[in-house]
Amino acid sequence: MNENIEKLIENCGVKLYDAESVTENGRKIFRIYITSEDGINLGKCEEISKILSPIFDLNPPVSGHYYLEVSSPGIERSLKLPKHFKASIGEKVKIRLDNDESIEGAIKDADDDGVEIDKKKILYKNIKKARTYFEW
Length: 136
Description:
It is a single chain. The chain has two domains: 3-71, 2-Layer Sandwich (GMP Synthetase, Chain A, domain 3); 82-132, SH3 type barrels (Roll). A five-stranded antiparallel beta sheet has the order 7-6-5-4-8. The chain has a three-stranded mixed beta sheet with strand order 1-2-3. By secondary structure, it is of the alpha+beta class. The termini are far apart. Strand 2, helix 2 (42-58) and strand 3 (67-71) form a beta-alpha-beta unit. Helices cover 24% and strands 39% of the residues. The chain has helices at 3-11, 42-58, 82-87; strands at 15-24, 27-35, 67-71, 92-97, 102-110, 114-117, 120-123, 127-132.
């Protein structure tokens, strides 16, 4: 994501969590996830969308026709970057490693190289997919 876009989002009192381009039901969607210590509400998503829409009209984030969505990453969210793991210390995660081994547990610690779960250090470079989960 463009650094200027990230600064615009932060000037609105929220932080950029992630962005992705997906196709759902034949529709291309560019999705921006935002976070805040106070939580995210629909009004804040609408505000960010209204700010970014004219910018993306001039410099589209993806090619072709797409829909812009702005939302919270949710309680069960994907973890991709070290900052995601650091912000999720204490939360339960499911991790799939490159060798297809699965690990579940609470994040005890995270740094720039990896994450610690139940006294086991896992390097980010070995993680295929990671996601927080909530036991209902």
